Amino acid sequence: MAGLGEEINQIMETPLTPATLRGLGDRSYDKRKVAALEVTALIKSLQEAKEYDRVANVIALLAQEFARSRNIHHRKGGLIGLAASAIGLVLDIDRYLHLLVPPVLGIHSQILLLFQ
User: Fold this and answer.
1) Is the pTM of this model over 0.70?
2) What whole-number distance in Å separates Cα of residue 115 and Cα of residue 10?
3) Does 5 score more than 70 pLDDT?
4) pLDDT tens track for 63-110
């Protein structure tokens, strides 16, 4: 049986490694942070190589499989992963805002609903 990372790699054709995917979903903040640093490095390298579709795939994966997950640790990993992506994009962030902003706002609106 394939693990979560392998399954997601096959579905989204993402350059994220299974270890990074596991790290983003881990309950430990430190493991999520290490995985986020890997996301930043990957996004920077893809951006420098002008692989814009692959950058969009990574962001879409973080938004769909992590930020919108029912698992709280995956949602946290999605947020830190999206933030890491934004850091990696530096000057070209405007090209991907339409992918980055909605999942972040969605999570924050869910949190606001909990406190009403």
Assistant:
1) yes
2) 38
3) no
4) 999 988 889 899 999 999 999 999 999 888 999 999 999 888 877 666
Separation CA 18–CA 115 (nearest Å):
35
The H-assigned helical ranges of 1-116 are: 4-12, 18-24, 29-48, 52-61, 72-89, 97-114
Contact 26, 73 (CB under 8 A): yes
What is the extent of the structural domain holding 53? 4-10+18-114
CB hemisphere CA count around 88 (13 angstroms)? 27
Per DSSP, the residues of 63-76 read IIIIIT-SSHHHHH
Number of domains in the chain: 1
In angstroms, rounded to a whole number, what is the distance separating the alpha carbons of residues 84 and 89? 9
DSSP designation for 94: G
